[in-house]
Specification:
The chain contains 17 helices and no strands. α4 (63-90) packs across α8, α6 (125-132) runs antiparallel to α7 (135-167) and α11 packs across α14 (347-377). The longest helix has 49 residues, at 172-220. The chain has helices at residues 3-12, 21-44, 51-56, 63-90, 97-119, 125-132, 135-167, 172-220, 224-233, 252-268, 271-278, 283-315, 332-340, 347-377, 390-415, 421-445, 458-468. 75% of the residues lie in helices and 0% in strands. The chain starts with a helix and ends with a helix. By secondary structure, the protein is an all-alpha fold.
């Protein structure tokens, strides 16, 4: 038993196994349903074998499940646990990022989506080649996307292992193995349709599970007003910190810019999101899904944010991290569930299933997109694959999906050593995706920027200058 588990067992007098039989049943049911949806999607699409069907659902999918899939894929357990932890530690200033998401939605809706959708491309990197007439730049952009996605796969796998290791005796390695195997199986056999339809179930479960936990705990604390008052006493309520210093963790300026950036980079210029938009029949449907995504995001993130305040109100005088009852700040919400709600049979199982639902939706979307990028931008153009049939091409893409899921497990093994998941995720994504997004936005917003002139060498410039002299 780890030091953390010993301290919790000693302080609470609990047995070593904290999950009840009902909790395990609820959690296992979510995994079984996910596998079942993948099998159903594979059987239903068995006579429609093509890469377009596998990666884009034949461009004939319905808006409602796509909207829920986009929401689930864009949120993940990183948001569920990371946002709650940020509010628990640093207060509500982060919430103002929702204000930045609104103009970001307008920009994606009016500018980005019409360009990408009407081009009928499969990989976003195809736009780069068309816009700049550079195959090398397309490969570079694809490389950046793949690097970020492999890192994201690892973080996605690691994050829910914090929840499961907090409430059971399963190690993070076993947890990642279970989740990675389930996800890899249903995305491999079912393609984007399996991803979308499992996302629907997982998104509803994620929102409902967290809402249930927050509601019960909030009632026990005396209601929303009392939670808010306790958070205010602890200096956790702050919305308009106008400090312009870049060294302050959260200010009004930095969080609103963050919201705009998230909308553009995680919805407008993001391969998993684009595949959802491209799976719809018309541009109007895609733009409607974009608006629905923002409405749903504000509702779900507000719930996540408030869960952080609930955790603070519960532990304002006895921080579990300081007392050594948890090893990482991101375990605060799972610890709250087991500390205060374990007497309610099935609730811990629902919460952990909600966390896993959030991460499975993001993981499946990401792995499917990794396969799409590898096929469309690298393998498809090789002589060995250039003339293959649709059936064989689809088999190759399925194999790539399986390899992407397996690689995420490897990356997840080291993800836990990097620190707070919120801070690490946004730091790394900013470093990798920031320059890449700049290339896309320059192409979209600066039509005067054209292809690179390659016929002027330094020696040529010197001769022209000498002639003028």
């Amino acid at each position: 038993m780890s030091g953390y588990e010993k301290s919790v067992t000693a302080s609470r007098g609990e047995s070593e196994t904290k999950f009840s039989t009902v909790d395990y049943a609820v959690f296992s049911l979510m995994l079984v349903v996910s596998i079942g949806i993948g099998l159903y999607s594979a059987i239903k699409s068995r006579h429609k074998t093509s890469t377009q069907e596998y990666l884009l659902g034949g461009r004939k999918m319905s808006p409602l499940p796509v909207a829920l899939s986009l929401l689930g894929g864009g949120i993940s357990a990183i948001s569920l646990l990371g946002n709650a932890t940020e509010l628990y530690l640093f207060g509500t200033q982060l919430c103002t990022c929702l204000l930045g998401i609104i103009p970001g939605c307008v920009f994606v809706h009016q500018v980005i989506l019409p360009i990408f959708y009407n081009l009928k491309i499969v990989s976003l990197s195809q736009y780069i080649e068309k816009r700049y007439k550079s195959r090398a730049l397309r490969m570079l952009v694809t490389g950046c996307q793949l690097l970020m996605m492999f890192f994201y796969l690892g973080i996605c796998l690691y994050t829910p292992s914090l929840a499961l290791s907090t409430v059971t005796n399963l190690s993070t390695t076993v947890s990642m193995g279970i989740m990675g195997s389930v996800c890899t199986f249903y995305i491999t056999i079912g393609g984007v349709k399996a991803v979308v339809y499992t996302d629907v179930m997982q998104t509803l479960l994620m929102f409902g599970g967290v809402l249930l936990v927050v509601t019960i705990t909030c009632v026990d604390l005396g209601g929303v007003g009392n939670v808010w008052a306790l958070a205010d006493q602890g200096s956790r309520i702050e919305f308009f910190n106008l400090d312009t210093s870049p060294f302050v963790r959260h200010t009004f300026w930095s969080t609103t810019v963050l919201g705009f950036y998230l909308m553009v980079s995680k919805v407008g210029i993001y391969q998993p999101a684009y595949q959802r938009f491209a799976s719809l029949r018309t541009l109007n449907q895609a733009q409607g899904v974009c608006i629905a995504f923002v409405v749903g995001l504000c509702a779900i993130w507000s719930t996540f944010y408030f869960s952080g305040l609930v955790a603070y109100a519960t532990y304002k005088d006895c921080d579990p991290l300081t007392l050594g009852r948890i090893e990482k700040p991101d375990q605060i919400l799972p610890y709250l569930v087991m500390d205060k709600l374990d007497h309610l049979t099935g609730v811990p199982g629902i919460f952990v299933a909600a966390v896993y639902g959030g991460v499975l939706s993001s993981l499946s979307s990401c792995a499917n997109s990794v396969a799409c990028l590898l096929w469309e931008d690298f393998l498809k153009h090789l002589s060995h694959f250039r003339d293959v049939s649709d059936i064989r091409a689809t088999s190759v893409v399925k194999l790539l999906s399986a390899l992407a899921g397996a690689s995420g497990m490897v990356v997840g093994m080291v993800a836990g050593q990097l620190g707070n998941v919120f801070h690490v995720t946004y730091s790394v994504s900013g470093a990798i995706l920031g320059p890449m997004n700049g290339v896309f936005l320059t192409g979209i917003c600066a039509p005067w920027v054209t292809t690179k002139v390659q016929d002027i060498t330094p020696s040529c410039c010197y001769l022209k200058h000498a002639h003028r002299l």
